[in-house]
Amino acid sequence: ISQFFSRLTERFVNGVDILMDTFWRIWTDLLDVLGIDASNLTHYFSPAAIANNPTRALLLIGAILLAYWFLSLFLGFFFYLLHMLFGRFFWIARVALFTLSCVYILQKYEGDPEHAVLPLCFVVAVYFMTGPVGFYWRRNSSSSLEEKMDHLDSQIRLLNIRLSRVIESLDRGSDQ
Question: Which GO terms describe its cellular component (predicted)?
Answer without folding.
Answer: mitochondrion
